[in-house]
Amino acid sequence: xTTFSTIIRGGRVSTASDTYHCDIGVKxxxxxxxxxxxxxxxxxxxxxxxxxxxGGIDSHVHISQPSGEGILMADDFESATRSAALGGxxxxxxxxxxxxGVPLRESVKxxxxxxxxxxxxxxxFHLIISDPTEQVLxxxxxxxxxxxxxxFKVFMTYDGxxxxxxxxxxxxxxxxxxxALVMVHAENYDIIRYLTEQLEQAGKTAPRFHASSRPVIAExxxxxxxxxxxxxxxxxxxxxxxxxxxxxxxxxxxxxxxxKIFGETCPQYLTLTEHDLHGLNMEGAKYVCSxxxxxxESQKACWEGLQQGVFSVFSSDHCPFRYxxxxxxxxxxxxxxxxxxPNGVPGVGARLPILFSEGVxxxxxxxxRFVALTSTNHARMYGLYPRKGTIAVGADADIAIWDPLIExxxxxxxxxxxxxxxxxxxxxxxxxxxxxxxxxxxxxxxGRIEARKGHGTYLKRDFSQFA
Length: 467
Ligand code: DUC
Ligand code: ZN
Ligand code: ZN
What we know:
By secondary structure, the chain is an alpha/beta fold. It is built from 13 helices and 18 strands. The chain has helices spanning 77-86, 104-115, 134-146, 165-178, 189-201, 209-212, 216-233, 245-256, 268-271, 296-308, 351-361, 367-381, 412-415, and strands spanning 4-14, 19-27, 30-35, 41-46, 51-54, 56-61, 89-97, 122-123, 126-128, 151-155, 181-185, 237-239, 261-265, 311-314, 399-409, 428-438, 441-445, 448-449. Strands 1, 2, 3, 4, 5, 15, 16, 17 and 18 form a 9-stranded mixed beta sheet that branches. A hairpin with a 2-residue loop joins strand 17 (441-445) and strand 18 (448-449). Helix 4 packs across helix 7 (216-233) and helix 7 (216-233) packs parallel to helix 8 (245-256). It is globular and about 70 Å long. The mean pLDDT is 98. Dihydropyrimidine-2,4(1H,3H)-dione binds next to loops.
């Protein structure tokens, strides 16, 4: 009888703090030993010349989320977690949206039904609170936090989603009471509404005007306001998808004051600019997301935020709509104005290779920061550590084995999600995750899925380490 089900032999192992050469012995889905000469196993994976890293945790993805009349999100749980696994991820955290007129618990149940038996990676849900009624604040939310839904997102913009400051304060009070973590989409709703009206009246309705309707000042102001509300409420806050220096500086200032304010940025803010929305005809719709990609100086700022620790997590904000599809980016109303183009870009499969190639290979960040930004800090932030997010005895054997030398040109086929494009098409990428193991089982190898659909399980989460 062998001691381990799997041994990963000869790789260079990195965590958020250390790098060392060792073998990894896996048993019952967990890391059972780290060392040399671990003996025999049913399966030995040769990792010489490879990096062996904690599997990616993408704590900001949207999957099968109701997105408005006539619009269909491009990914279900199968296709999204397929792409995630191919891109080196082992856990993803999508959002369960509180739907209008539906009891929150019912929305959660329905969302579980969509995920059940469909996933290749592990999953856990954040909630989106769109209507903080007395019932939600007093009963449903505290009960759901107790059941392991320990983080929720609030929006400061969008019809049907935006909360007033008063409502945000009430949600934060529940977070304070229950130790939940609040995530915020920070853009000033009225600035966007005002500018959208002005642009439309001037006939400026093409996708590129999406960026003009959501300037940096709208993001900066809302970021400052959200931080102020969190300070008043004495709760930690995660400002998601930060796109520019001014918003980042608000977060940095709060951190320097000692507040528990955290920031996230995403691949689109490192690699795209407003110029990408200027494509011919409707091509710019492919890049419509919020906040919008900005300019080269904003990209530089986002890199600094990653290097200096202002941003603790790097997520994809995977929010996929097909391009050439009347239920996607080319929804008929979207041709009449940018305001109706579904917001979001796919990225769950491309996030890690982009940061590895542009960050680690190009010397902007070291491998330990890469691991922290893509895995460990997500686990700490969202109550999954130390089961997830590191390579240590006792942790789940969630591991991505990277070939650091492969040079490829990114195509949509490589990320293989449910959309019909990637906004990162044509990028030169060095390094790729060649094997992804979820709880010790090979889920993806060399661009193919090997596990059965349904290997991924639901994770009930603990509290954030910061709440
Ligand atoms: N916010 C997100 O987090 N994702 C996509 C669209 C949006 O506004
Ligand atoms: Zn958002
Ligand atoms: Zn998002």
